[in-house]
Amino acid sequence: SSKRFEGQKVLITGASQGIGEAAAQYFAQHGAQVAINGRKEEKLKPVLESLPKISSGNHVIVAGDVSQETSIDSIFQKSIESMRGLDILICNAGYQIPSPSEQIKLADFEGVMAVNVTGVMLCCRAALRYWLEHGIKGRVVVNSSVHQLIPKPHYLGYSASKGAVDNIVRTLALEYASRGIRFNTVAPGAIVTPINDSWVKDPKQYEAVASHIPMKRPGESKEIADAMGFLASEESSYITGQTLYVDGGLTLYGDFESNWS
Ligand code: NAD
Hints:
Layout (H helix, E strand, L loop, with lengths): L8 E4 L5 H12 L3 E4 L4 H10 L9 E2 L7 H15 L4 E4 L14 H29 L4 E5 L12 H21 L5 E7 L8 H4 L2 H9 L9 H12 L10 E4 L15
Parallel strand pairs: 1-2, 1-4, 2-3, 4-5, 5-6, 6-7
Helix pairs in contact: 1-8, 3-4, 4-5
Bound molecules: nicotinamide-adenine-dinucleotide.
Nicotinamide-adenine-dinucleotide (NAD) binds next to helix 1.
């Protein structure tokens, strides 16, 4: 694999499993030094050990809850101190809680917003403070979802949160474009990760999900990591404030495929 991220320092939130873990593998494979975040240190240890080693330094664990202002401070302090810098921030941590919307619990709604929205804002703020102080042209990639566009009944907080992060990214992209700091979003469709165990592990439900995706299969975490890599690299040097849908065609209104005449 190329070493196109050699010398780059990358912080990835929610990297203990799923897409965040795949992103950590991706950046380490391409020569970057990575700081992996998640809430629990012990869940991050096996990920750290599995990462390809690089010659310029060690990868590092920066455990902590991204919805808490105080832990954001320590996550960034430890990341920047251990790696002696920060060039790329991948805001990936996120979760969802299903419920019919008339029964939604305020604490659940607020909990999803705290991680998926406030967490992104706090991480971006911390990265910006460091980058502006040091004149670094940093890059942020936020992991949103096709549900920033496609409504998701029974997941009101999740849908709302992903719509919100799209606007966070577009607003920050505009605010900091002149200083060379870029913000973009990847919006995955249905990806095989632990968040989706309910249908991934049930052959019937898996088929049901696959059948309504134009490419007739869910995506793999690596396919999202590849898109994050593009948006964090020099190859996307003139792209900011955009969403890259990585969804096998899910946002193409698949019902019209054979139904247009
Ligand atoms: P996952 O549940 O497998 O992993 C989520 C990660 O976030 C875990 O490492 C978890 O520990 C971490 N996390 C959760 N709350 C946290 C907190 N408060 N502080 C720090 N870390 C926290 O999920 P995934 O499928 O890999 O999803 C990752 C991102 O991709 C999420 O933002 C999700 O919304 C988005 N996404 C996933 C899919 C999909 O189909 N899997 C589709 C669209 C978008």
